[in-house]
Amino acid sequence: MPTFALGIGRTAFEVRGYFRRNDQMFFTFLFPMVMLAIFSTAFSSMSFGPGLDAATYYLPAMIAAGILTSGVQNLGTDIANERYDGTLKRLAGTPLSPVSYFIGKIGQVLVTGIAQSVILIAVGHFVFGVALPTSADRWVAFAWILILGLITSALIGIGVSQLPRSAKSASAVITPVVLVLQFISGVYLPFSQLPEWLQNVAAVFPLKWMAQGMRFVFLPDDLASLEVGGSWNLAGVALALGLWFVIGFVLARVTFRWIRKN
User: From first to last of its 262 residues, what are the pLDDT tens digits of the chain?
Assistant: First the structure.
């Protein structure tokens, strides 16, 4: 079968497997929704700007966090586990090529990541009353940031899956990095209130840019003044995600092996 067709078939297999793993479902699919509910409820009495409540402020941040966890955390730990439980070794003896395997993993991240974002928006709108964008340019920006962010995160996840030295250490190695990035990238704490040096560190990584792009989609224009440089800087978002797409692709292609050589 052609490489792409095998990849599509692998995508369906990966999606079914994903929704059968309850622990993975919680930490990479439901966790952003739980955090949105907690922050929206805990800070419901606070104002984050003129007419801006906690749910509206945190929705774009949780969408960005969901993109990163769907790719980096999900695939990083999943592939590491498959390497050490013998799954990759068995796949090496099948007609499935690494490219088809990548397509399956990236396809799974796209399906679950898009579904997660849609549910987050629905919860934000119907449960917490978040007003949705009414202009087409906002939704176009949402679409390309979401798709590019998911693919980029998936490629990074494939690359970092080589770091854990065992299946048991996969979560311990990858999850803390993802959590630290969430704290310094404007997900849980307002980015403008972080020290300048910490903002500069966060700007090296893609989550900061995904969160900034999502804030453009869902927040009022006057809040752009709080961003670095006083604007949403969508060109910078595209450039940063494009650069990490290339880095992730190179990492995934160069480091991936069916059987790890110790």
Answer: 688 888 999 999 999 998 888 777 777 788 899 999 999 998 888 877 777 889 999 999 999 999 999 999 999 999 999 988 889 989 888 888 889 999 999 999 999 999 999 999 999 999 999 999 999 999 999 999 999 999 999 999 999 998 888 877 888 899 999 999 999 999 998 898 899 999 999 999 999 999 999 999 999 998 898 888 889 999 999 999 999 999 999 999 898 888 766 5
* CA dist., res. 9 & res. 95, Å (int): 13
Domain membership flag for residue 179:
yes
Spatial contact of 13 and 101, defined as CB atoms under 8 Å apart:
no
The set of residues, in sequence order, having a beta carbon less than 8 Å from that of 223 and lying 6+ positions away, is 49, 52, 215
- Write down the pTM of the prediction: 0.94
78 and 174 in contact (C-beta within 8 Å)?
no
What total number of domains does the chain contain? 1
The range of the structural domain enclosing residue 133 comes to: 3-255
Judge whether 260 lies within some domain.
Answer: no
- Output DSSP code: residue 224: G
